What we know:
mainly beta
Amino acid sequence: QVQLVESGGGLVQPGGSLRLSCAASGSVFSINAMGWYRQVLEKKGELVAFITSDGTANYVDSVKGRFTISRDNAKNTMYLQMNSLKPEDTAVYYCRAKSGIVWDDGFWGQGTQVTVSS
């Protein structure tokens, strides 16, 4: 099992920045990718960014050029640097990790609220 704990959410004005962190514990050696998933009530969620064990980063088009995902393997921690935030980035952001092929069989953090509003 893998446990994931997020931190770093909050309220920010449009154009501002936030950095989310996700600390992993447990069977971290089994993880082959980690990512950030965001969910807005009554809307379909999306995996906005993920990073593989070899450090390859992937982003959904709506955050490319604004968000940067990274990981510190020594600390078993993943980060999401979010710049130029927009109101439409408002969501609950969940840390995700997987050790198998599909994300659906992976692990979830408890979520952290990000609100972009003036």
